[in-house]
Every structure is written in C-alpha cells, then in structure tokens.
Amino acid sequence: MYAVKVENLTKVINGRIILQDISFEVKEGEIFTIVGGSGSGKTSITKCIVGLWQPTSGKVEVLGKDLLSLKKVELDELRKQIGYVFQGAALFDSLKVWENVVFYYLEKTDRNQDELRNLAIEKLKLVGLGEEVLDLYPSELSGGMRKRVGIARAIATDPRLIIYDEPTSGLDPITSRLIDQLILSLREKTGITSIVVTHDLVSAFSISDRIMVLQSGRVVQIGTKEEILYSSVPFVKEFIKNGLGAELIKLSS
Questions:
Q1: Alpha-helix residue ranges (DSSP H) falling in 3-95
Q2: What is the distance, to the nearest Å, from the Cα of residue 113 to the centroid of all Cα atoms in its chain?
Q3: Residue 158 and residue 160: Cα distance in Å, rounded?
Q4: Starting from the edge strand earliest in sequence, which strands make up the sheet with 31-36, in order?
Q5: In this structure, are strands 161-165 and 193-197 parallel, antiparallel, or unpaired?
Q6: What is the C-alpha to C-alpha distance for residues 201 and 116, in angstroms, rounded to an integer?
Q7: How far apart (Å, rounded) are the C-alpha atoms in residues 248 and 253?
C-alpha cells in the first residue's frame, strides 16, 4: 500500500516551472527522504502533498485520496491525518509548551484542560521530554527542545503521515543525530509514514529507506541509500561527494 502517490506532477507559477513531471510513491511505514540543492523543489512538493498548492498538471494521491477531487471540508479532514514539522518548529511564543502541543484541540474542540495536558504529556514523552517542560514558553527552550515540541505537536492528532521540513536545520551535529534517532523511534513505535525534506545528507543516509534526489524541479534518481551512495549518475555522484565530504569515506566503508 502507498501512503502517497505522485504522478507526472508539474507546477508552473507566473510562467516559471517549479516542478516538472515529478513521479514517485511512498510506501506505508516508509521513511522517504527528498534531497536537493536550494530551489530544487523539495518544499514545493510537500505543499502539493498537503494541498496548499494545486498542480498545474499531474495527480497527487494521499492516503488513498485524490487531492484534486476533494472538497474543502474533505481536504480539511484529510489534513488531520497529516502531521507537519516546520523548519524552525514554528511554535507560538505566547503559548506554553503544553498549549503548543495540543493547539489543534484548543482551537477545534471543547476538551477540558486536564485532558489536554495529559495528552500533551503523552506526546512529549514520545519525543523524549518530561512534564517539567509543560509550563515553559518556547523562548525558555533550546533549539533541539523546540524541535522536539514541534514534532510532539505534529503527532498530537495521531496522523498516519508526517512531513518533516529540514528537521535538523540550525542544530549542532550532536542534536541533529538525536533528532534522527527520534524520527526512527517514532516510526518504530507508531508505524507512521514519514517524508523528510533535508539538505543534511548525513541525516538522509542515517534514517531513510529510500531517497529521492532533485535538481531544478526534476527527479534525478530515486533509490535505496546504497543505490544513491553508489550512483553512477554524474549529478548524484557530485551532489553526494560535496554534501557528505569526509563522511562519505565512513559510509562507503
């Protein structure tokens, strides 16, 4: 079964081709990573997957639903099953940690505060944070902790699909590897399907089942970590060499 299926996706904005003839599938429970240089179309693909952008042409199916055929209320219902981790965590500065985690329920339901605090505790535990952070504000957290809270918020509605946008961006190498382990742990504990957009190739080769390499809005190659690492495609070889540097020797050995 596929959680996401994209066929011949093209997106043109003001005469500029953003994405061209993109096709790929993401299997249920898979960690599928999208890599490429700045402006290659990584985040543009995720905007199409969550229905923020409509394709100029092509087809996008998410969790068995054809996005183009959905009415607004149906699209909103589908989005409940998709968690999104923003690049900078995008927490609300004026809300406490627990309020950030259960923000969807605060906005959309009348569930009581005790129930929501307990839900926040449950989700924070999954990302390795304890009750001591519940009443803190985002400004009182480290970058890595803010990222974890962002992930806890993304899984608060028990989504079937989670999209990580540059999950290790702005983090030191040690914290980045901890976030990698968290992504793997969440998949192991929940079976959730993950799409990861990243420029961090060490992260990509640590967590991915398969990797898709983009260049200027086009797919260059899709493959397992091994297939990408030992690719014969000139662009991919150069991209991996430049992106991994000394780490390439470790991964290749």
A1: 42-49, 72-79
A2: 29
A3: 7
A4: 82-85, 161-165, 193-197, 31-36, 210-215, 218-224
A5: parallel
A6: 37
A7: 9
Which residues are 161's β-sheet partners?
Answer: 82, 193
Cβ atoms of 35 and 199 within 8 Å: the answer is: yes
For domain 2-252, is the CATH number 3.40.50.300? yes
Structure-block tokens of residue 88: 């900078």
CB 123 within 8 A of CB 152: yes
Q: Domain residue spans in the chain? A: 2-252
The residue ranges of DSSP E strands in the chain, in sequence order, are: 2-13, 16-27, 31-36, 57-62, 65-66, 82-85, 161-165, 193-197, 210-215, 218-224
The three-class DSSP label of residue 90 is coil
Instruction: Return the percent helix, strand and coil in the chain, to nearest 5.
Output: 45, 25, 30
Q: Which residue's structure tokens are 């179309």?
A: 41
Q: What is the pTM of this model?
A: 0.91
At 178, list the tokens. 């901890």
Which residues lie closer than 8 Å to 106 by C-beta, 6 or more apart?
99, 116
Return the pLDDT at 153.
92
215 three-state secondary structure: strand
Sheet with 57-62, side-by-side order of all strands: 16-27, 2-13, 57-62, 65-66
User: Which tokens hold the place of 230?
Assistant: 């030992």
Q: CA-to-CA distance for 71 and 106, rounded, in angstroms?
A: 25
Q: Which two tokens stand for residue 2?
A: 């596929």
Take residue 246 and report the two structure tokens written for it: 């000394």
> Is the Cα torsion angle 20, 43, 169, 173 positive or negative in sign?
negative
Condensed to tens digits (0 to 9), the pLDDT of residues 51-95 reads: 999 999 999 999 999 999 999 999 988 998 999 988 766 888 999
